[in-house]
Amino acid sequence: RAKLNQQINRELRLRTGAENLYRYQCVLILKSDVRKNFIAKEFVLVTEASSTQRQHIVSVPMIPLGLKETKEIDMTVPLQDFISEHYGEDASLYLNEIRDFMELRQAMRTPSRNETGQELLMEYYNQLYFLDQRFFSPHRSLGIHFHWYDSLTGVPSVQRELAFEKGSVLFNIGSLYTQIGARQDRSTLTGIQSAIDAFQRAAGVFLYLQENFSHAPSLDMSSPALSILVRLMVAQVQECVCEKVIINMQDNNMNVLLQAAKEAARVSDVYSLVLQAMSVPLLKDYVPFSWISMVQVKTHHFRALAHYYTAAALCDSSGELLNVSSVRRSGGPAAVLAF
């Protein structure tokens, strides 16, 4: 009877464990699907905003990156215990400051998609630096678990190291820069310059993460993924530079047209490198399909644009070829094919 009871209990535990594993896998799949839908929706919103802003020059939409999400945590008790034990002071005297810090973390979970939200993330990151210096000793853990979700798949990751919190906040700073850059009106020189500045800042953040946070548990903060993000941001900066050259074209002489062709070919080349980086086995199924498709479109689009401007420069400027400014207003190389 005892052996039979042990066997029954063992089978019940195995069944419970299998059910829990199944539920966990279902949750991951659902979170992944929800996250992919969120990315697609965000991409569509940026695309629609871009199309309504560009009435005179047809531009391909940029690729923004979604923010990492995190769970709510309460550090009040661990911080108070550390103050009492390590510093020997009355922790209740610092309760208001701890509450302000917790409110700041709560607010940075859902920042506004503009410069104000960027300042909020930077303020929280600066506070984490001082917190790391005074409360997180390498010889003792406060027992605080930081939960963050992958920005592309929604898969959760947990660590007790404050470096994971800092790295995730930095990742969101870079992601928010990509959204700010993608929302700029690139039909004006001011909008193009603002987009260049935002994408350059995003590339700098992702490069800093790649060089200083090499042991992150989530795939979006791994070195190969960050390398792709850096390349993508640099490509989008180059695209803005090309648009700046085209929008500054005052006449259609050979030198101006060849300069435009050179810039368009350079954009196509950098997007081709991004596409190669996205095709590696580790990240091939991780990168969103919409990103891969958009990078492919941009590679061919700017290659065709380079061919068009080269042909325009080599042809006689007697008016037989379509006027370059009218082609840009009517859709670029597609208009040449229709013509």
TrEMBL record:
Say which domain of life the source belongs to: Eukaryota
Q: Name one GO biological process term.
A: negative regulation of stress fiber assembly
Family matches, as SMART domains: BRO1 (SM01041)
> Which positions fall inside the BRO1 domain?
61-339
Q: Which Pfam families match?
A: BRO1 (PF03097)
**Protein name (database record):** Rhophilin, Rho GTPase binding protein 1
